[in-house]
Structure prediction request, 206 residues.
Amino acid sequence: MHIALAESQWNPGMQTEERVDAIVDFLGIRSQILKTTAVIVQHDAIGKPVKLKIRYSQQYTAGGEKALVDGKISASPVVADKRWQGYEGDDLEVVIDLGGIKSISSLSSGYLRCIEPGVFLPTQVEYSISKDGKEFKSVGIVKCDVSQRDKKSIRKTFSIQGLDLDGRYIRVKATNLKEIPEWHRANGRKSWLFVDEMMVNPVIIE
Prediction:
């Protein structure tokens, strides 16, 4: 089941990424009923080639690299939702080829916090842009600004707004916590990083 919501249904003063998280939070409380619900988002990276520096876990593939740019965002902040792609103890580094020089105003990507099974948000996400795929310029680092100990499972978007840049290649680096903290019952084991959609100039569509 897919849910597509118009921007007008949400606070027009919110950024697209904030509305995505608000929708996911709203639908997430119904996740047992809407088990395969997805929020549909239009953005400039949909269907574009993706290269991973380190491959995802075979336990949580989400269907492969293309799942990161399919325009469908998980509305279930739970590990069992197959839209999440998982990395155990490894950082995430992705390069997306937009196929040509594009004007870029915003970049974002979504992550899961579900601490019981050891899934934590990245400590930071860095976005870089390149015109040739060789020389990348960092355009911003987004730090994690919420608690990693909160037991509530959430999807959180790490985004950069207000850009006025041109580029073809987008590099996303998300830093894994690496090790489950000492206060957790599974302390010392590798922590998981779960990601779903990487977005360039996103807009929620009807």
Observations:
- Residues 1-12, 26-34 have pLDDT under 50 and may be disordered.
- The domain at 7-204 is CATH 2.60.120.260 (Jelly Rolls).
- The CA atoms of residues 108 and 199 lie 5 Å apart.
- The chain is about 5% helix and 35% strand.
